[in-house]
Amino acid sequence: MPHFYDSFPPHLQEWALEQSVFFTASAPTYGRHINLSPKGVPSSTLAIFDENHAAYLDLTGSGTETISHIYENGRLTIMFCSFSSKPRILRLFCTGRVVEHDHPAFQETIAAMKLAEIPGTRAVVLLDIWKVQTSCGYAVPVVESSDLGETEKAIEPGAVEKGELKQASRRGFDDRHMLEKWMVNKIEKKALGEYRIKWNSRSLDGLPGLRAARRMKGESVWIGDARARAYNALYHPMAVMLGMILGVVLTLAVLQSSSSGTLNVDKTLATLYLVLRRLSLMVERSWTVVSEGFGR
């Protein structure tokens, strides 16, 4: 059975930091691409401030989906799962905020996390945790290892304080450091900025991405953000059209009933049909212009 919490209990915090990997899930408000990303080594990249606040280091990568989605709607889910003999899935439902590497608060945030900054870190993602869920994880495979030793004890409230948490959940995994080496190489060649401009400026759905990358390519951040907000506001032309139709119908009904004292249904429906056809053509043409203007 799933269990829900309004905050991140200490025994689950301890368990989460023992895992080898966590995952981030996000989505645009209207776009088609729903993103899911793995993040390695939580003990080196994730900091838990208290039961409702955490943060993780966001390293330079080949996309900017999570950052773009957070900038647009703030929605973010973090998931941990056990690959050991004691199953568990943990989800953190969060509202995210982004502190980019060129922001004045970046170094202060890194210091508050008490983690070593990894070269090439492009941002810190701050997490406001508003709900926590655990579930069984019975279908998640077990990663076998010859040194697992005794079966892990269940991580329940009080287990850490009693000294019952002895087994390392990360056994059977080897940390991969290729990304850090790749970023150091890019920095030494002074090519990291160019890479971010190419791959981190926009999401797959065309949403604004890393602001530092957008500034480096000469884009006005506030104009780009304003265009994105305008696009989202106009994304549902059918809803706009329906509102206009209802307004026209109500206006016609009121005018007709006030002038004749009765409502001619056939005449009203015929008028509504003509209005619907004209509005449909207008909205279709307008939407084509808007879509081409935003390059989507």
How does this model look, in words?
- The chain is an alpha+beta fold and 296 residues long.
- The chain folds into two domains: 3-230, Electron Transport, Fmn-binding Protein, Chain A (Pnp Oxidase, Chain A, Roll), CATH 2.30.110; 236-294, no CATH class.
- It has ten helices and eight strands.
- Strands 1, 2, 3, 4, 5, 6, 7 and 8 form an eight-stranded antiparallel β-sheet that branches.
- The longest helix has 30 residues, at 265-294.
Descriptive tags:
296 residues; 10 helices; 41% helix; elongated; alpha+beta; eight-stranded antiparallel β-sheet; single chain; 2 domains; Pnp Oxidase, Chain A
Mean pLDDT rating: 84
CATH class of the largest domain: Mainly Beta
**Rg from Cα:** 26 Å
Low-confidence parts, pLDDT < 50 over ≥5 residues? 148-155, 158-169
Net shape: elongated
Q: What's the structural blueprint in terms of helices and strands?
A:
Layout: E1 3-5, H1 10-17, E2 21-26, E3 35-40, H2 42-45, E4 46-50, E5 53-59, H3 65-73, E6 75-81, E7 89-100, H4 106-113, E8 121-135, H5 178-188, H6 192-199, H7 211-216, H8 221-233, H9 237-260, H10 265-294
Antiparallel strand pairs: 1-8, 2-3, 2-6, 4-5, 5-8, 6-7, 7-8
Give a quick summary of the entry:
With 296 residues, the chain is α+β, with helices and mostly antiparallel strands.
